[in-house]
From TrEMBL:
Domain of life, per lineage: Bacteria
Signal peptide span: 1-17
Keywords: Signal
Source organism per UniProt: Streptomyces griseorubiginosus
Protein name per its UniProtKB record: Lipoprotein
């Protein structure tokens, strides 16, 4: 009986030691502070914009019908109609609430351009007046008038803003804006250096049967 009592006491002692060790481990784990997020620490270091990838393009915005000049004909002053291909509108997308004007002001400073369009501004496309009027002369061929624009897309991270729970977190986002429209005309089939907007119009229209534009 004495032996049973001794064994029982030893079992209780071992169990107590194990429980004590588990408690210490739990306390130690909970007491270890979580490492600070390095990205948050960097972006929240100061209230400023950090700009990442920035790209520029010159897409086609509008184009005319193909104007055909046949041998011996002279059309005289011809207006190139403006048929919309796409609408380009400046915008700011952000994970947090930010002043779009401030975002674009920072991008203007980074690029050294004061003519970047404000958020919400859409590039106007000419109406009945057309893109422009010109005299193709008597040069035989198919001609196209086009309108393009310089488009800028840039990603950013901004300091820290308060989210819905009141916690201070960095804001990430993307800006799409535009500046300085470009327009002109070209002759289909001419091997010459064209800008991206003109090349897009050439690919879109010059492979089709040309017809007299309005």
């Amino acid at each position: 009986m004495a032996s049973l009592a001794v064994l029982s006491g030893l079992a209780t002692l071992v169990a107590g030691c194990a429980a004590s060790q588990d408690a210490k481990s739990t306390t130690s784990a909970s007491a270890t502070p979580k490492a600070e997020n390095p990205v948050r620490a960097w972006t929240c270091a100061e209230t400023t914009f950090h700009w990442g990838r920035l790209s520029e393009s010159t897409p086609l915005v509008a184009a005319s019908q193909v104007v055909r000049v046949t041998s011996g004909s002279h059309l005289g002053l011809t207006t190139y109609a403006a048929i919309p291909v796409r609408h380009v509108t400046a915008s700011v997308e952000s994970s947090g609430k930010l002043d779009a004007h401030a975002v674009l002001a920072s991008l203007r400073a980074k690029m050294g351009r004061s003519d970047l369009a404000e958020a919400g501004k859409t590039l106007p496309i000419p109406g009945k007046e057309g893109l422009f009027s010109t005299d193709p002369g008597n040069t035989k061929g198919d001609f196209v008038g086009y309108l393009g624009v310089h488009v800028v897309t840039a990603d950013f991270a901004y300091g820290c803003v308060s989210n819905k729970t009141g916690k201070s977190v960095p804001a990430y986002g993307t800006v799409t804006t535009w500046y300085r429209p470009i327009q002109g005309e070209f002759k289909c089939g001419i091997d010459m250096k064209l800008n991206d907007a003109a090349r897009e119009a050439n690919s879109l229209l010059c492979g089709e049967k040309a017809s007299q534009g309005e």
